[in-house]
């Protein structure tokens, strides 16, 4: 199987990007693949053993089967859980696409079969006054997986996100309906609307999980859909 790499974005912050990233990394590892994930920039971190660590990055680091140092997974980390460019400005730091691209490409040189790069927030999150996180995805030329947080308002968010990714010229590997039947009235009707109007494949609909086995089964199916 050829090496597979994806950029994971979502309809918003808290859409489930990390949840999906971790689930996919584990599903790929169950198929015997060497897996790794990168969270290039994070905002929202705590001190762990004297080092600022972001929970998404720790989860992604733990879920990958290839051992990576924290800095390889998450090279840029800010303490407050706010928009990353504002967190950077508060520390008089400038984050650029070029710098992030260098870090990510460096980590992805580590031999592996399957990798994900998790964004932060949604598609158009600023990195500085001129550049967006979507510019990083463009520079990396990665196919994109969109996690749609299934709640009222997601139709508009999902369509705008798809439009923006296509406008950026990147392929959409597929989208995931996340957290179904959790708190969405007329879930099936909303899912059908998304499915009819999005031309990229629906890779899977993930329920709001009650147990690990259900989650594993859903991610195994999702992983197999990604490869079909
Ligand atoms: N299908 C699901 N079942 C159960 N819990 C879920 C599911 N999807 C997401 N969650 C939970 O919802 C919360 C938000 O999800 P997650 O952290 O993956 O969002 P995110 O898109 O990565 O956000 P960020 O923009 O901060 O990176 C987490 O606590 C996560 O465990
Ligand atoms: C702190 C949060 N969990 C994410 N890491 C960053 C979300 C940035 C959102 C920016 C925005 O679109 O307003
Ligand atoms: Mg996350």
In a nutshell, what does this entry contain?
Strands 2-7-1-8-9-10 form a 6-stranded parallel sheet, sandwiched between helices. It has a two-stranded parallel sheet with strand order 3-6. The chain has a two-stranded antiparallel sheet with strand order 4-5. The chain contains 9 helices and 10 strands. With 228 residues, the chain is of the alpha/beta class.
Secondary-structure map:
Elements: E1 4-10, H1 17-30, E2 35-38, E3 41-43, E4 45-48, E5 51-54, H2 55-63, H3 70-73, E6 76-78, H4 84-90, H5 97-108, E7 114-118, H6 133-140, E8 144-149, H7 154-167, E9 172-180, H8 187-197, E10 202-207, H9 212-226
Parallel strand pairs: 1-7, 1-8, 2-7, 3-6, 8-9, 9-10
Antiparallel strand pairs: 4-5
Helix pairs in contact: 1-2, 1-9, 5-6
Magnesium ion binds next to helix 1.
Structural overview:
Its main location: cytoplasm. Keywords: ATP-binding, Biotin biosynthesis, Cytoplasm, Ligase, Magnesium, Metal-binding, Nucleotide-binding. By secondary structure, the protein is of the alpha/beta class. It has one domain: P-loop containing nucleotide triphosphate hydrolases (Rossmann fold, 3-Layer(aba) Sandwich). It has 9 helices and 10 strands. β8 (144-149), α7 (154-167) and β9 form a beta-alpha-beta unit. The model has no long low-confidence stretch (mean pLDDT 96). The structure holds adenosine-5'-triphosphate, 7,8-diamino-nonanoic acid (DNN) and magnesium ion. Magnesium ion (MG) binds at residues 17-18, 56, 118.
């Amino acid at each position: 199987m050829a090496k597979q790499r994806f950029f994971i974005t979502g309809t918003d912050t808290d859409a489930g990007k990390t949840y999906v990233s971790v689930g996919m990394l584990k599903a790929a590892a169950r198929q015997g693949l060497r897996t790794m994930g990168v969270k290039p920039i994070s905002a929202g971190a705590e001190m762990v053993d004297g080092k600022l660590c972001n929970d998404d990055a720790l989860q992604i680091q733990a879920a990958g089967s290839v051992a990576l140092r924290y800095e390889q997974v998450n090279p840029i980390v800010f303490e407050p859980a706010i928009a990353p460019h504002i967190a950077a400005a508060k520390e008089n730091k400038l984050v650029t696409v070029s710098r992030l691209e260098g870090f990510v490409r460096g980590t992805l040189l580590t031999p592996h079969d399957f990798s994900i790069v998790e964004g932060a927030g949604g598609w158009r999150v600023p990195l500085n006054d001129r550049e967006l996180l979507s510019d990083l995805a463009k520079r990396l030329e990665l196919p994109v997986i969109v996690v749609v947080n299934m709640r009222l308002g997601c139709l508009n968010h999902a369509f705008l996100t798809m439009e923006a990714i296509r406008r950026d010229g990147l392929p959409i590997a597929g989208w995931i309906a996340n957290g179904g039947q959790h708190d969405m009235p007329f879930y099936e009707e909303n899912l059908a609307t998304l499915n009819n109007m999005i031309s990229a494949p629906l890779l899977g609909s993930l329920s709001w999980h009650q147990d690990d086995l259900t989650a594993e089964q859903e991610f195994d199916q999702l992983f197999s859909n990604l490869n079909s």
